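Two proteins follow. First one:
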Amino acid sequence: MKIWVDADACPNVIKEILYRAAKRLQIQLTLVANAPLQIPASAWIESVQVRSGLDVADSYIVQHMASDDLVVTADIPLAANVIEQGGYALNPRGEFYDNGNIRERLSMRNFMETLRNSGVETGGPPALNSRDREAFANQLDRFLAKNRK
């Protein structure tokens, strides 16, 4: 099992949690981004810089992941593709996307995008808080304890 991170929009505090987990449990962690990343020196952590463009990092992750890999992303279409490929998708707020909730999330995302495109200001998600960080860390720990081979 490998952990992939859609790193362009992933909060630094979440990356730090992932760095510690990868080193502690010796699990390969790959961060994919359009821009260069500063990552800690570790045999377990790597970054991949892809060219700029819409969904280039997402496509790279989907093309290179294996079933049963974990992808950390807030990008709902990417999460849907990960699930379709047999992987797991966890958002930085500690919520897993799965077959039971991804269609609803895609519908809501598309609806909000339609509103924004018609000029309605919808605002963005609230800032990540300590409860979100704790939820993410707890979900990650439970997932890794259960799924690590």
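Second one, unrelated to the first:
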Amino acid sequence: MPLNEHHPNFPLKLNLESLKDLERRLGYPIRSLKYFCDNKSSNVKTLTLQQYKNGKPKEPRTVYNPSPQYKRLLRIINSKLLSKANLPRGVLGGVIGKCIDDMVSEHCNQEAVLSMDMKKYFPSITSDRVVNFFKATGCSPEITGILTDLVTLNNSLPQGFPTSPMLANLIAFGLDIQHLSQAKKNNLRRTRWIDDIVFSGRSKDLTVCTKSLLGAIKPHGFRLSNKKTKYQVRKNNPIIAGLEIRGNIPQLPSSVIEKIHDILNECKCSGTASVQLSYESDCFGHKKDLKSSLKGKIIHVSKYNKVAGKELEEIFNSVDWKS
């Protein structure tokens, strides 16, 4: 389903008709823009990230890292053009000043929660869809072509470009509007963080419209990840983005705190060197630094549970990190 540029709440109007308009808006000469259009291969590094879950390798993820000069231009496009958009309510990922807590807090203490994930989200947003978006914002064909060339790679939105999250938000406008309309009609709450969508409300209201909420994904050009689609009720202690939402505020699961506690005690009993050998890998497959990683985890725990965080910090400080 195409973007509806005639919708009264269409999120962005650029109205860029000439090259001079684009130069003035970005503060970049056209020759510099065209340089990056013509030399993307030498200005983008491809990274393959091997991710792990519970010690087992997941499907590798490809990320594209622009050169510092190219990244600076993309950030300017993001700040001076794309970030001027007025996004629909509850669209939070990639938005300055928003964090995952903003999404999770919206669904605390609700009877039921439906979470869904869009599969291969960035690759599904092709160059043709980006072209249609820029046309809908009032850009001339020439400007549309230049901007599309700058923000896409291999015929789609690349993960790792500073412009991709906001462009993905804007291209999902039609889906957001339909979902928000369905949510309002059924007294539900709805948030989206990039490719993760969450609805919550009374069980009877959510159950009635679950099928139609899931069915809205495909007509808007996206695919649903069935493995990551979950319906949870409050009595079963639902978890969203790694946080428990049964109460009035997000909480870190006790299992996470217990795991850190066990690792710290193992460091005290067996020595940090032996624990480091078996410690988890990062997304590149490299072993994480045990001390700095645990310190970061304790800070994360303290954000949600000060008492538990303080207890873990005391154990952390009692460990002989030179052993």
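SUMMARY FIELD: The first helix runs from residue 19 to 26. The chain is about 45% helix and 15% strand.
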